[in-house]
Amino acid sequence: MAKHKYPFQALSKLLNAKTELATADFDGLADITASAAEVNLLDGLSVAGNATASKAVVLDADKALLGLRRKVTVDADGMTGISEAYSGGVFTNEGATGAAVFALSPATVGVELTFMVMAAQELRIDPSGTETIALPSSGAQQAAGKYITADAVGEWVTLQCVKTGQWQVKGFLGTWTVEG
């Protein structure tokens, strides 16, 4: 039997052991450490976006996820190229003295982004090319390429792509309007 591609498969096989265990199954466990409360996969990856250390994900006895925080990006004048690498992230315009434009890369299914107005200046979310964003108050997709905007401290919107080329609103607070 070949070594498992993912060490957790070997662990699963061990935990559910019958008689078909082989040496390769135990070799797959070499990348896993354990304590009485948790199992940690040591993947050794160093590419941004991947786990690089033990306890990157920890589940408690109720299988609840512990210890992960959302990346908060503060940019007073906005940023371009917000791609799937930023999924789960929070973006703010804190410190802005003018409009902060956050330009989205093409919408990829499963990506979720949150935007929060932290300075009383326009925070604009601009979709890529011919893509669309739903207006938070109605949920209706706006015209292709039209941005949404808000400018009062405390307003926020969470967008999620569930269909290629479209951003849906998962939640919001405040008054968001559409371009034009």
Please characterize this protein's 3D structure:
- By secondary structure, the chain is mainly beta.
- The chain has two domains: 7-66, no CATH class; 72-178, Jelly Rolls.
- The protein has two helices and 15 strands.
- The chain has helices at residues 7-15, 23-27, and strands at residues 32-34, 39-41, 58-59, 65-66, 72-74, 78-82, 90-92, 100-104, 112-116, 123-126, 132-133, 148-150, 156-163, 166-173, 177-178.
- The strands form four sheets. Strands 5-7-9-13-14-11 form a six-stranded mixed beta sheet, with no helix packed on it. It has a five-stranded mixed beta sheet with strand order 6-8-10-12-15, with no helix packed on it.
- It starts with 6 loop residues before the first helix and ends with a strand.
